[in-house]
Design goal:
This protein has one domain. Helix content is 79%, strand content 0%. The chain has 14 helices and no strands. It is globular.
Length: 305
Amino acid sequence: MNTLSAAIDGTLGRLTPPTRAVVLILFSTLCFTSMHTVIRYASTEGQIHPFEVAFFRNFFGLLAVLPFALRGRAAALRTKRLKLHALRGTMQVFAMLMFFYALSITPLAKISAVSFTAPLFATLGAIIFLGEKVRARRIIALVLGFTGAMIIVRPGVIELDFGAILVMTSSAIWASAILIIKSLARTESSLTITTYQNIFLIPFTLIAAVFFWNWPSWELLGLFAIMGIFGSMAHVAFAESLKLAEATAILPYDFVRLIWASGIGFLVFGEVPEIWTWIGGTVIFASATYIAFREARLRREREAG
């Protein structure tokens, strides 16, 4: 077990594994939302291009996990699946740059609500590319989920929301990266996956940032450091929660991201979420959760049979 996992176990050791998983997933939602807040602030108030913010997120994210990764003769850096880490990084850079740019032009709550489409895209990808069987209930859940996204965007009713479109596109790419992460998780620790994510994303995001470079103030650099720490802690906590409990047991708690985003968005930026954001977000999340529960049930039936 890596040092970071041991630290988590030491802090939450008295709790049962399912309870620890819930605590970790709630912690990760707060960390993700806090990171998104810094990104939006730096991109709007700090006048730093989102691509440059993405570079600093990965740079400081790597610094945050590197002390843990280098312990035990750099055990966390040992991998036989470097090509798969590289493929994941190549895919994720496009998702990250789209998502960060969307954060600079779209309210936090709407970003969180639309990002719930990622599991829907993952399911759709499994059907199209992996040949998984399509059942009526699955199709209905997918249709309802994407209907929820349309409720938020409302094409033809209001002006097309470019930020929401970017988030959906980012979610589609991220869904493919999720499949790679699931494969990596069979042999790699959450610390290894997070560390290599930062290693591969740093050069990619630096290339994108160079064209828009504007040196940040010391205050912003401090915020970027906090952002990197939040991002790395969020990814590690999320990965650890998945190891302690089934995804279906903790997925409902991910909805708390929308609550965090609404509260922080209002307090920091004076953003009041539209009722359509809540309605659409709830529909998307409910459909994604149903799909997860349904697939888990079918998997157990196959294993029992």
